[in-house]
């Protein structure tokens, strides 16, 4: 049975009445499309997983700005089910640069939505106090989470930055006249030491205060109702207690996730058992609390292992009956000959990636239908 036939059989007469679904979504005023996306991602995760690629349609290996193109599509014939963007350009630059970024991102999100795909946004947030980018610069960066929290010296500036994000969120209107939902993933990998918001430079209390303010201000004051909020540390935890050490609370998080490159072959280090153990902690928390869960970032740079997709990534995702809504691999740089995480035509792992694509467990954009409709779980 082919992939389409599998799902036509599996999803025959699959209807869930909204009244029987107790949502863990934190925005009770979320748009109908955002509520539908949340519900359908939760349902889909019980049987399969969406594939996502960062910056998939903005650029790829050796190209940039081409219309209707992605490296994933060039290999499989389909865009990824989910496209990753970044809010990094919505602050820290000139007004002209920010305006151009907004328009470029708006078109990207709207195009994805109009095709029936999903958008997730990371935020490599330039330090608003020391103006030195998002990576920590020794001797230059400031410990700015304490400065942007309520009462901090940079709090009013932070509110202006959030206003830019809100204006963008309320501009992504599809051809049906509806706002496109976005999975927003701020302050990711906060348990590491490479970003200025990292654990060594930010107290637990300040991190939680900033997170809670960010969600409340966007949702309640600026009236952003098309965001799904994702919490994603790196892979430095081994227990649920460690995973939740900086968790801001179920009232401020829609999705729990994990970024994990270290267990998936980085520097030749493969530890599938450890990856499964950590990812199961994430999945179990989502199941217990009716939250979405995801492998929010992973990948193997240059993909030197030609069977990495089926023998590493897919094996982990299919283990332990985990319920994960998506898996995202990182970007394909337009100039670097080695910095890429998805295959392109001729790349050694392309045949295995096609097997990954054709597996009924994985969902790409061609597989999605009506994911923004509440009463129909639409695949094919």
From TrEMBL:
InterPro entries: GH, GH26_dom, Glyco_hydro_26, MANB/E. The active site is at 189 (proton donor), 297 (nucleophile). One of its GO terms (biological process) is substituted mannan metabolic process. It catalyses: Random hydrolysis of (1->4)-beta-D-mannosidic linkages in mannans, galactomannans and glucomannans. Substrate binds at residues 124, 194, 261. Its EC number is 3.2.1.78. GO terms for molecular function: mannan endo-1,4-beta-mannosidase activity. SUPFAM superfamilies: (Trans)glycosidases. The keyword Mitochondrion does not apply. It is an enzyme of class 3 (hydrolase). Residues 32-366 form the GH26 domain. The keyword Cell membrane does not apply. It comes from the Bacteria. One of its GO terms (cellular component) is extracellular region. The record marks 188 as: Plays an important role in maintaining the position of the catalytic nucleophile. It is found in: Secreted. Belongs to the glycosyl hydrolase 26 family. This is Mannan endo-1,4-beta-mannosidase. It comes from Flavobacterium petrolei.
């Amino acid at each position: 049975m082919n992939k389409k036939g599998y799902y036509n059989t599996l999803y025959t007469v699959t209807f869930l009445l909204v009244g029987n679904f107790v949502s863990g979504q934190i925005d009770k005023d979320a748009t109908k499309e955002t509520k539908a996306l949340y519900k359908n991602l939760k349902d889909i995760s019980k049987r399969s997983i969406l594939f996502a690629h960062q910056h998939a349609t903005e650029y790829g290996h050796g190209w940039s700005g081409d219309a209707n193109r992605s490296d994933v599509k060039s290999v499989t014939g389909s865009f990824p089910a989910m496209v990753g963007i970044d809010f990094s350009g919505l602050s820290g630059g000139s007004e002209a640069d920010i305006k151009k970024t907004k328009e470029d991102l708006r078109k990207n999100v709207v195009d994805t939505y109009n095709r029936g795909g999903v958008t997730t946004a990371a935020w490599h947030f330039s330090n608003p106090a020391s103006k030195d980018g998002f990576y920590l610069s020794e001797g230059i960066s400031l410990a700015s989470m304490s400065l942007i929290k309520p009462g901090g010296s940079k709090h009013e500036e932070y509110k202006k930055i959030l206003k830019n994000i809100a204006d963008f969120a309320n501009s992504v209107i599809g051809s049906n006249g509806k706002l496109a939902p976005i999975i927003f993933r701020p302050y990711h990998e906060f348990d590491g030491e490479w970003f200025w918001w990292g654990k060594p430079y930010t107290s637990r209390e300040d991190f939680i205060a900033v997170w809670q303010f960010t969600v409340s201000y966007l949702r309640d004051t600026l009236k952003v109702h098309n965001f799904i909020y994702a919490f994603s540390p790196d892979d430095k935890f081994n227990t649920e207690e460690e995973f939740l050490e900086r968790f801001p609370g179920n009232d401020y998080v829609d999705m729990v996730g994990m970024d994990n490159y270290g267990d998936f072959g980085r520097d030749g280090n493969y530890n599938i058992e450890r990856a499964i153990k950590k990812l199961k902690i994430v999945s179990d928390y989502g199941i217990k609390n009716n939250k979405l869960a995801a492998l929010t970032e992973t990948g193997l740079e240059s993909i030197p292992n030609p069977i990495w997709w089926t023998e590493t990534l897919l094996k982990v995702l299919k283990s332990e009956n985990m319920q994960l809504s998506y898996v995202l691999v990182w970007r394909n740089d337009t100039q670097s000959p080695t910095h890429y995480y998805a295959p392109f035509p001729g790349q050694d792992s392309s045949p295995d990636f096609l097997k990954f694509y054709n597996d009924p467990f994985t969902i790409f954009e061609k597989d999605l239908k009506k994911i923004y409709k509440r009463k129909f779980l639409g695949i094919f």
